[in-house]
Each structure stands twice: as C-alpha cells, then as structure tokens.
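User: Could you check the structure of this?
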Amino acid sequence: YNGDMYCAKSNAVLKFQDTSWILVGSCTGDAHCLKVFDGKLIAGGEFSKINSTTVHYIAQYDGSTWSSIGNGFTGLDHDVECLAVYNGQLIAGGFFETEFGDTTQLNNIARWDGSKWQPLAGGIPDGNVETMDTFQGELYASGVYMQYADTVACNKIARWNGTTWQAVGTNEGVQSNELHTYKDRLYSTGSMTQNGSTFTVGYWDDIKWNDISGDTIGYSTYSLDFLHDTLYLGGLGIFPYNGDFVGTAMLDLNTISTSNDAVKETTAIKLFPNPTNDVFKISCDQGQGKQLILFNSTGRMIFEKQVTCGDRVNVSELPDGIYFVKIRSASNNWNGKIIISR
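Assistant: Sure, the predicted structure tokens are below.
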C-alpha cells in the first residue's frame, strides 16, 4: 500500500519501514486479512476496535488514521476472514450475520456499495467464508462448512456471477485454504476432489480441477503466491523428494503438464491479430453459436455478446492493456487473452 509492505497478525497491523516492522494498528483481536481498495488499506479480522476506534471487525486506513466502513458487522460469531474486489466493489467474507445496527441478513459475505453493506443474494447461510478470489469475471468463495450458497448446493466452494450463485465443477468437494488467480487459472490449496481422486494443490480451468501436487506436496497446505511463473506454498506436511518435512515449497509452473481438455481446446480457437489496435477476428471450427465474454485485467466484465466463427469484435473504444476472453459453447469453454496496443 502506497509503496510499503503491510502485515496482518495477532492483535496488530504492521508496516515494514527501513529495516524493521512498526505498529500502525493496535487491534482488540487478531487481524486476518488486508486488501487495497479505493486508495485505502482495508483490514479485516476479529477486532472490534483498532487504535481505540470502534470499527466492528473491518476498517480502512488512509495512511494516517483508521476508520470504520459503514457500521461493520455483527452476529453470533464476529470475524472477517477474507477480502476481495469484484465488479469495482469491496467484498468481505467471514463469520457474520448482519451489518452492525441493521437487520438485513448478509449471511457471512457482503459487498460495500459505498454507503451500506449489501447481501450477495442469500449469501452463505450455513458456514463461514475463508477465502475468495476473482476468476474469469466471477467471484469464487470457499469455506470448510459451506454446503449451500443461497439455496444452491455447493459442497464448500461456489461462484458468484454478479446475480446468482453456482456450484463449481462436479460438486465432489473442495475445501480451499486459499484461492489465488494467476494468469488463466484459479489455484487452490487445501483439499480438492475430482473424479474420486483427492489432492492438496491444484487449479481450476473453468471446466474441472487439475492435480499439481504430485509426489512432493503432502497435507495441510495453507497459503500460496506467485513470482515469475513459480508457485510458492506454505504450510505443514510439505516435503521434497528426500522425504524431510519442511514448511515451504516452490513449483515451476512451466513444468506442469497441460494435457487436459481445457488446454486441448485452445488449438481450436484463435484470436487475430493479437496484439490488435481496434478489431480482432475469431478463428475457430464451424459449429453452433458461441458466447464471448471480455474481462479486463482485474477480472471485471467489459461486455458479452453472441458470436460465430469468423466474426470480428470491435475493441477500438477500450484502453490499451491485456484483456481476458472467455468463449462458451454448448460443449466447451475456451479461455484466452487479447492485447490491445496502439
């Protein structure tokens, strides 16, 4: 935030300055998560106050002072466990029922509309939300006790398209400790099941879960992040080939096999010219009509339209940058990117 590194920890938010960590937020409970939104640093956790300011489990920092976001939250359990930004709005997930002082049921997940915390349909009525991230224009949320998102059976993970909740995959069960989007995949640590096989590290390609834990990743992977196409993991029971247990691991993503259906499909669709400055054309096998959805680099949907093979898509009014393209048909999904450069 503002060029500095921050850390959420037990009873505090810290900033790294010069050669040491300094206290910027003294909390009455643990701080669990941080997110930059609308020019401010957002902190969520189990704290009702930060630096003596009452905030009810979520607060914003402008570089000098902390303040509440709306009235915060309340419920039988009081906890904000994760934060995300989706469609330009701040999303909070955790253990809470309503905004403090309000009766509208939020059910463990809510969006900030600039003046009030609003529900995402019926929310997650039967469990906490532990982790969230955006992928291909949808918000993914996971929690160990989640069985329903609104009224949709979801088995610990669900996705929100801005209007409704949907299950993810075959609904065999994904207990994610952390979700993290990198390039054209949504990565997860924890426990994922696909076709009866359970693994601890994998990615979702918008069709199915794919195992990348191999022989080197054991149980209880808690966190992940990326640097230069390398996946870094933290947790318990992570071990290298020599069998010694360690707490961290790294995986070169360029070594991952891509022999799955989603990647095979990429040979059937091409976008050109790429980069483009105003229009790109869709080259694909002839067949039924398709739905094209375009997202910007933050995962926000720009537009969607029905297309057929050979159609030209006008992007002349969009600013330069990298955009993600999802093309759906009755039988397949395809994910790619288009670069606009002038």
